Every structure is written in structure tokens, then in C-alpha cells.
Amino acid sequence: ALSALSDLSPWLHFGQLSPQRVALEALKTPQSPAREAFLEELIVRRELADNFCFYEPMAGTYDGLPEWGRKTLALHTGDRRPHLYTMAELEEARTGDPLWNAAQKEMVFKGKMHGWARMYWAKKILEWTETPEEAFERALILNDRYEMDGRDPSGVVGVSWAIGGLHDRPWAERSVFGMVRYMNDKGAARKFRIADYIKSVDAFISSRTGENLSIDQH
Q1: Which of 54, 64, 119, 163 is most exposed by smallest CB count within 10 Å?
Q2: What is the CA radius of gyration of the chain?
Q3: Nearest Cα residue to 217 out of 204, 200, 202, 203
Q4: Per-residue pLDDT of the chain (218 residues; tens, 9 = 90+)
Q5: What does DSSP assign to residue 178?
Q6: Contact between 46 and 146 (Cβ < 8 Å)
Q7: d(Cα 54, Cα 19) in Å, to the nearest integer?
Q8: What phi and psi values does residue 178 have, to the nearest 5 degrees?
């Protein structure tokens, strides 16, 4: 799962590659679940994001989140957070979570982040920030500052999905998240090899900085 990504989003974002061309080329390959999942992301999810940002005047703001998401988060604003990190600590990947730190470092050094890690990354910001409003703002700022495909409808919708349940449904209620979908490192471990992912990010940083820099070094 470490390299099972197309890495096309920056090229699509800057208009150097047409999504139509990508879809036509993908359709030339044998039908498979992987191909269908790729086309789902390329066409359906991408168009949903464009549609939301075009028609929703509040897109890119906390008030643009679905009403049910804002309501459930408001009910849990006073819940005790397991950790509270400053914006600087998040930006510099100085948390107690090695997976999150790796995702943040990958974004800063590479300009992109593993797709599944990106969802986990945003949800942890919600968990580690005093209010959901501030969490939304932080996640969007960091996404737009460091992602090559930032400042894009897909990024806005990705953060809105992770923090406020946009294009999702209510789940079992829990602390901090309310009925917004929860994700943790155990779920991540079922999706990809966390230790290998952290090592790959570590190796990439070392190759660019010339230092043997562990992701956990602050």
C-alpha cells in the first residue's frame, strides 16, 4: 500500500493533465476493483468536490460543514481531549503520534501525503485541538500551505469530510467526535504497513537533507 498511489493530483490540480485523458487511458486497462476505485476517485469524488465548492457559498469555512456535523461537534466541544497541541507543534510534527508525525513530515518535505494518512492526519487535528472550528482552520491552513494540490476543491472537501462529516453519514457517538466518523492507528494498520510507511518517509527526508533524521527527532 506504500506505493499504490497514482501521484497525479498535483498535475491535475495545475491543469497539466486532463482528468478526461486519465480516465480514457485507465479505461484501456483490464477491468478490476482497483481500476473502478481509481475512476471513482478521479471522476465521482472529484466532481462532487468541484460541485460542492461551486454551489456552496460557505465552502472552505466551518459554516460550510453539514448542519448535523456542526451540531454533534458542538455538543462535544467541552469533551476532554487526549492531547492539546499548538499550531507550531503540529506544523513541526512534534506530537506523540509517530504515524501522524510521518504524515506531516511527508507533506512538508514532499508536498504530498499518502491518501489514507491524509484522512487520519486531519481527524487527529480535530482530536488534538480545543474546538472543532479551530481544528478545521488549522487543517485547511496546513493542507493549503504544504500540499502541491492544496487550494483546491478536493482539499477543501477532504478537510470538510474529515472534520465535519461532509459527504458522509453519522456514526456511533463518541467523545470529541460526536457522530463524525472516527479513525485511529489500529484502523490505519489494517490499511497499510505503518512501520514501513514511517521508514519510507524517514528515508526520503534523509535523502534530501543529507542527515540521518528520524521522524521522531524534534
Answers
A1: 54
A2: 17
A3: 202
A4: 445 678 898 889 889 999 999 999 999 999 999 999 999 999 999 999 999 999 999 999 999 999 999 999 999 999 999 999 999 999 999 999 999 999 999 999 999 998 889 999 999 999 999 999 999 999 999 999 999 989 999 999 999 999 999 999 999 999 999 999 999 988 888 878 899 999 999 999 999 876 555 444 44
A5: B
A6: no
A7: 18
A8: 60, -125
Q: How is residue 205 written as a grid cell?
A: 527526508
Angle between helices 132-146 and 98-110 (to 10 degrees): 40
Q: What is the pLDDT of residue 1?
A: 46
Q: Phi and psi (nearest 5°) for 45? A: -65, -40
Residue 148: partners with Cβ closer than 8 Å, 6 or more residues away: 9, 10, 13, 111, 112
- CB burial string 73-106: b at 16+ within 10 A, e below: beebeeeeeeeebeeeebbebebebbbbbbbbbb
Q: Which three cell numbers stand for residue 204?
A: 526520503
CB 160 within 8 A of CB 65: yes
Q: Is 199 helix (H, G, I), strand (E, B) or coil?
A: helix
Task: Tell me the domains of the chain and their CATH numbers.
Answer: 58-209 (1.10.579.10)
Alpha helices in the chain (DSSP H): 9-13, 19-26, 33-39, 46-55, 67-75, 87-91, 98-110, 115-127, 132-146, 153-164, 185-191, 194-209
